[in-house]
Automatic annotation (TrEMBL):
Entry EC no(s): 3.2.1.18
Database matches in PANTHER family: EXO-ALPHA-SIALIDASE (PTHR10628:SF30), SIALIDASE (PTHR10628)
Name of the protein in question: exo-alpha-sialidase
Reactions accelerated catalytically: Hydrolysis of alpha-(2->3)-, alpha-(2->6)-, alpha-(2->8)- glycosidic linkages of terminal sialic acid residues in oligosaccharides, glycoproteins, glycolipids, colominic acid and synthetic substrates
Length: 376
């Protein structure tokens, strides 16, 4: 017999009140396109780098570049940057003051593969922080002077803060022409409870050589940066917790010192890309690893101090099957069009649209919209 006491269980779940819209979407590539990083190369011209030749993890993978001269509607065939079978991945991409493309990447074969003892070739085996493999430099940078058709010889980079060092996202430029590249990885000097740290590395010669590192935050990895109109350096960093989310940080001294991180997205909303719009507002686009899978967005009108967090902006919610989706990268071209590139690893089903059925289960797509479409 019971005691007569009533018991209940409860959870919180999302509800939505708003208006529905329609956004144009264009195919960048099919059967490939992981981790895209989008950069603007002219008033309406764009370049994107993405992973090809293997899925999210795979020894045969490398990076490829495609270009668009019509504002991101049509894209050139991909040109591979590095040989396959080194698991080349995790790009950082930018444009220097001479208009040359600059690319950083991680050659994962050097750090997380070892020979299979049964003779089956290389197998994926992440190493402990003290592993001898980490003494080999696996981060490289290259420069292209012809729009990605050919690249300089790779230059290796060894971080003073990190052993496993991986680039990420868009390479940005300060007012004096210095390039800033986002890098994250395992600390050389381990800190209890900390898996990764994010740092900035700099180049004063157009991306040929890099150095002058500064530590941004510990306990974070994939981080996007942007210079605000007042010169403040803004960061949106993915934390290392199991249920990852994005936190924001600010620097008033070009990335030498940083504010304490503040969480702004919910769990499973990551990683992020940050874009300063022509209006001066700050746009944060981020992967949604909660249903509906795809891409969300937040706007800030005060340089990232506050956000429209109670307004759900769903740029894409048609990820079909898995959490392997997103990694948005966003630019705004001269005519005001905002373009967000993102990938789908397990299918895209925008309302069951027939035209998407030929795009393949894996694809990289470009969403086109304008700032006014982001507000109620």
């Amino acid at each position: 017999m019971g005691t007569g006491e009533l018991r209940y269980q409860s959870i919180e779940s999302d509800m939505f009140v708003g208006r529905r819209g329609r956004l144009k979407r264009y195919l960048i590539c099919s059967l490939q396109g992981f981790f895209p990083v989008l950069v603007q190369t002219g008033s309406s011209s764009l370049s994107v780098v993405y992973r090809t030749g293997a899925p999210h993890v795979g020894i045969s993978g490398t990076l490829a570049v495609s270009n668009s001269n019509d504002g991101g509607k049509s894209w050139s065939d991909p040109v591979e940057v590095a040989p396959r079978y080194d698991d080349v991945r995790n790009p950082a991409y930018g444009v220097n003051n001479e208009g040359h493309l600059v690319l950083g990447y991680w050659e994962a074969k050097q750090h997380i593969y070892e020979e299979d003892q049964e003779g089956h070739g290389l197998k994926y085996v992440p190493a402990a922080a003290e592993d001898e493999r980490y003494k080999v430099a696996a981060m490289f940078t290259v420069v292209s002077k012809d729009g990605g058709k050919s690249w300089s010889e790779p230059v290796s980079y060894t971080s003073k803060f990190l052993t496993l060092a991986s680039p990420y996202g868009r390479i940005i430029t300060s007012s004096d022409g210095t390039l800033y590249m986002s890098v994250y990885g395992t600390l050389r000097e381990p800190v209890e409870g900390i898996k990764n740290a994010c740092i900035l590395v700099r180049s004063t010669d157009g991306g040929v050589t890099w150095g002058d590192e500064s530590l941004v935050a510990m306990g974070f990895n994939e981080t996007s940066y942007a210079f605000l109109p007042d010169g403040t350096l803004f960061a949106a960093a993915r934390n290392d917790q199991r249920y990852s989310y994005i936190s924001t940080l600010f620097s008033k001294d070009n990335g030498r010192t940083w504010s304490e991180p503040v969480q702004i997205t919910r769990d499973y909303e990551h990683p992020a890309d940050v874009t300063v719009l022509q209006s001066g507002k700050l746009l944060l686009t981020f992967g949604r690893r909660v249903r509906p899978y795809g891409c969300g967005a937040l706007l800030s009108e005060d340089g990232g101090q506050t956000w429209n967090r109670n307004e759900e902006v769903l740029l894409a919610g048609d990820g079909a099957e898995s959490l392997d989706v997103g990694y948005p990268s966003t630019v705004q071209i001269e005519d005001g069009t905002i373009i967000t590139a993102l990938y789908y690893a397990s299918g895209s089903d925008a309302g069951g649209a027939d035209y998407l059925k030929g795009w393949g289960k894996i694809s990289c797509q470009a969403i086109h919209y304008r700032e006014e479409q982001l507000r109620l």
